[in-house]
């Protein structure tokens, strides 16, 4: 078999985090009863006129600046004409001729190798509605709530050569957008979805092969499987002497295969022309500078700062900054208790464990930094031991309870009465002569058993260090 190379480019659609839609005042809130977040403008009623949401432009510019793009300071909207049931106007307002951002790039790293993935353009557009296929009644319903929700479409150059590079690019892009606050990027809600353009060519061939497109992928796992599946399909066609047809395909993740939907359209198929109801956009130098100055610290810079300012290991910094929510909790908690390594430990170990157990994303964390800081303070002052602290943290994680009040109300404070502890330990020693003999015969591990028995007798509310000290003294 010949040696083939995969060539991949992505079109990433990102719903922006504005409160209202791109051309009307309807809410962008996810969900709601079908067709309740609508008005005459976003449902395309005759005689209505759009009014551009300024925040959409600012978010698009912020995304462009953060990805190294050149901002088109004089740009405009165009009409993309096509008929589909979820597009009530029979056209989509988008940008073809003068997109707001061009010629950027994102650096990724895969297997220790760094590479820049070019960004051809970023343009603004409106989202379409949603078709709901009802197999029970054998019909298709249309929900227009999503119509007019503002999008930016981020179009990469065909620079990716593997699923690993695609996932690295998407993860980096997602973090940039979340740190900027321009989108929540919740893939399960469709806030970030990708179209995969993929072709195959022999290694060393100067020309690209015929590409196919798989649309609206909203899961990293599905994207990786779709790339591998389509790569194999195209290679098999070429090996059998057949041609790859330029077309749009649908990936079925349950069946692990793709199906042809329609022939791939070109720009002329959409009959683009300048949008007559919207004036051109002029982005002045002052406005551009204002948006630049508002840009927050992004992930790469934050990682380096954590290592130097907070003196935490690189591994910790990578994990914590891998989620804006975790990074925000980390910084807010450290600002209260000034114990960065302790905060890092609680996030890296117990928080990650509970997220995995509950199949949650970091963005779903509900506990307040104040309560994590209070818990760390209780351990630091030895008001509770670490065993109890872990149990209390589970309540903090689940219900965001005040740990100080919870410890007080449930009698969980560490018993520091040396007399009572000594009496308990004497009883444990008397009840376990074999362990005492083992210890005296040089088996140091025997003391661990006695510590455990003492902790059990004290219902976990004792200081292990004090137990060890008294045990060694009595033994």
Describe the protein's architecture and organization.
- Keywords: ATP-binding, Ligase, Nucleotide-binding, Protein biosynthesis, Transferase.
- This is Aspartyl/glutamyl-tRNA(Asn/Gln) amidotransferase subunit B.
- This protein is an alpha+beta fold and 475 residues long.
- It folds into three domains: 4-286, no CATH class; 297-409, no CATH class; 418-474, Arc Repressor Mutant, subunit A, CATH 1.10.10.410.
- It is 40% helix and 21% strand.
- The chain has 15 helices and 16 strands.
- It has helices spanning 54-66, 163-180, 220-239, 285-294, 299-309, 314-321, 324-337, 340-357, 369-380, 386-399, 403-409, 418-431, 433-440, 446-457, 464-474; strands spanning 4-15, 70-71, 74-75, 78-81, 91-94, 101-110, 113-126, 130-134, 139-143, 150-156, 192-202, 212-217, 247-252, 257-263, 273-274, 281-282.
- Strands 2-6-7-10-1-11-12-13-14 form a nine-stranded mixed beta sheet.
- The chain starts with a strand and ends with a helix.
- The mean pLDDT is 91.
């Amino acid at each position: 078999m010949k040696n083939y190379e995969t060539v991949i480019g992505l079109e990433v659609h990102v719903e922006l985090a504005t409160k209202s839609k791109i051309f009307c005042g309807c809410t962008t809130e996810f969900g709601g009863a079908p067709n309740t977040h609508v008005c005459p403008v976003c449902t395309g009623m005759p005689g209505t006129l759009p009014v551009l949401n300024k925040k959409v432009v600012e978010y698009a510019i912020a995304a462009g600046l953060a990805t190294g793009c050149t901002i088109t300071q004089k740009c405009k909207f165009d009409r993309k004409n096509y008929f589909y049931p979820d597009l009530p106007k029979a056209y989509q307002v988008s940008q073809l001729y003068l997109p707001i951002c061009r010629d950027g790039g994102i650096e990724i790293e895969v297997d220790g190798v760094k590479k820049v993935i070019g960004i051809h353009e970023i343009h603004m557009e409106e989202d379409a509605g949603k078709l709901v296929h009802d197999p029970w009644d054998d019909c298709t319903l249309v929900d227009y709530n999503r119509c007019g929700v503002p999008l930016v479409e981020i179009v990469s150059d065909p620079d990716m050569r593997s699923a690993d590079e695609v996932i690295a690019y998407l993860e980096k892009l997602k973090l940039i957008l979340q740190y900027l606050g321009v989108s929540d990027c919740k893939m399960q809600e469709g806030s970030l979805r990708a179209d995969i353009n993929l072709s195959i060519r022999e290694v060393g061939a100067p020309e690209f092969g015929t590409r196919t497109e798989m649309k609206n992928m909203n899961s990293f796992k599905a994207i990786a499987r779709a790339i591998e599946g389509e790569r194999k399909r195209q290679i098999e066609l070429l090996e059998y002497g057949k041609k790859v047809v330029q077309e749009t395909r649908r990936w079925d993740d349950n069946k692990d295969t793709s199906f042809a939907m329609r022939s791939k359209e070109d720009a002329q198929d959409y009959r683009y022309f300048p949008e007559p109801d919207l004036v051109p956009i002029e982005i002045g130098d002052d406005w551009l500078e204002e948006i630049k100055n508002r840009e927050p610290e992004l992930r790469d810079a934050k990682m380096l700062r954590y290592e130097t300012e907070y003196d935490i290991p690189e591994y910790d910094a990578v994990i914590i900054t891998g989620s804006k929510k975790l990074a925000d909790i980390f910084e807010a908690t450290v600002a209260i208790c000034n114990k960065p390594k302790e905060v890092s430990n609680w996030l890296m170990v117990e928080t990650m464990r509970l997220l995995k157990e509950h199949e949650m994303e970091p963005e779903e964390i509900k506990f307040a930094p104040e309560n994590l800081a209070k818990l760390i303070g209780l351990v630091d002052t030895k008001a509770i031991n670490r065993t109890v602290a872990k149990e209390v943290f589970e309540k903090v994680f689940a219900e965001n309870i005040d740990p100080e009040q919870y410890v007080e109300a449930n009698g969980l404070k560490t018993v520091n009465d040396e007399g009572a502890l000594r009496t308990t330990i004497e009883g444990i020693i008397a009840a376990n002569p074999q362990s005492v003999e083992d210890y005296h015969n040089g088996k140091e591990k025997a003391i661990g058993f006695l510590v455990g028995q003492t902790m059990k007798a004290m219902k976990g509310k004792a200081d292990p260090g004090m137990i060890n000290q008294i045990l060694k003294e009595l033994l």
